[in-house]
Amino acid sequence: DVKVTQSSRYLVKRTGEKVFLECVQDMDHENMFWYRQDPGLGLRLIYFSYDVKMKEKGDIPEGYSVSREKKERFSLILESASTNQTSMYLCASRGQGTDTQYFGPGTRLTVL
Amino acid sequence: QKEVEQNSGPLSVPEGAIASLNCTYSDRGSQSFFWYRQYSGKSPELIMSIYSNGDKEDGRFTAQLNKASQYVSLLIRDSQPSDSATYLCAVAVLAGGFKTIFGAGTRLFVKA
Fold first, then answer.
1. Taking CA atoms, what residue in B is nearest to A107?
2. Averaged pLDDT of chain B
3. Is A43 in contact with B88 (Cβ distance < 8 A)?
4. What is the DSSP string of A45-89?
5. CB contact under 8 A, B99 and A43
6. Is residue B1 scored above 60 in pLDDT?
7. Helix (H) / strand (E) containing A21
8. Strands (E), B1-112
9. How far is B91 from chain A (nearest CA, A)?
10. Which of A22, A36, A51, B16 could anchor a disulfide with A7, C-beta 3.0 to 4.6 Å?
11. Model pLDDT for residues B44-66, shown as the tens digit of each residue
12. What distance lies between CA A100 and its chain's CA centroid?
């Protein structure tokens, strides 16, 4: 059974804090993605990675960075959290040459 | 113009009816097309993918693709209350890599 896990379901942080969101997949997938989901805007791609230590900017990378030191783990970093980064964050993975993305359960982040 | 557009709904249908969900996309180079279902508080899960013009059926679900009109639809026959969810249309494009763009989703309510 495929599995993508995220470190927290709910997170509350203060403005200016550095925030780490972790994602782990057990499917040996090459591709991993970070999205944020906001009402009326759908899923927007923040960053993705197609290999260890490789990363590509998505549509809204500003204020975020990522790290992929191991194939199974993809981390999203908010360098200095701001209130407009309050959102649902979804991690996904996809195998090479396949179309299906498997999503983690999501992390609802609130920045106060 | 949004790259993938969906009517946000809500779309309300009685149990047993056909639910019709529609999506348009702007990139004529789009390669693959997907429908994801997302229950409230859960992450998206893939229910249908379609790659060529025409219809593709899977149980009570039928996906329809018309590349000339840049239009994708999902029909749900014999709708059940358990089909009540948000349905996300997604389109894969080649843009410096394989990238999936999601619509904002259509909320479907199936009334018992």
1. B43
2. 92
3. yes
4. EEEEESSTT--EE-S--TTEEEEEEETTEEEEEESS--GGG-EEE
5. no
6. no
7. strand A19-25
8. 4-5, 11-14, 19-25, 32-38, 45-50, 54-58, 61-66, 71-76, 85-94, 98-102, 106-111
9. 10
10. A22
11. 999 999 999 999 999 999 999 99
12. 17
How big is the A-B interface in CB pairs under 8 Å?
42
The minimal CB distance from B103 to the residues A42, A103, A106 is found for: A42
Q: Which residues of chain A have pLDDT under 50?
A: none
Residue keyed to tokens 């969900």? B21
Contact A42 B102 (CB under 8 A): yes
Residue B98 has pLDDT above 90, yes or no: no
φ, ψ (nearest 5 deg) of residue B26 = -105, -25
Other beta carbons less than 10 A from residue B102's beta carbon: 23
C-beta atoms surrounding A80 within 10 Å: 11
pLDDT for B74 beyond 90: yes
Maximum Cα interatomic distance, chain B, rounded to a whole number of Å: 46
Partner B contacted by A104 (CB < 8 A): yes
Per DSSP bridges, beta strands A102-103 and B85-94 are: unpaired
- Looking at CA atoms only, how far is residue A6 from chain B in angstroms? 12
What pLDDT, on a 0 to 100 scale, did the predictor assign at position B30?
A: 86
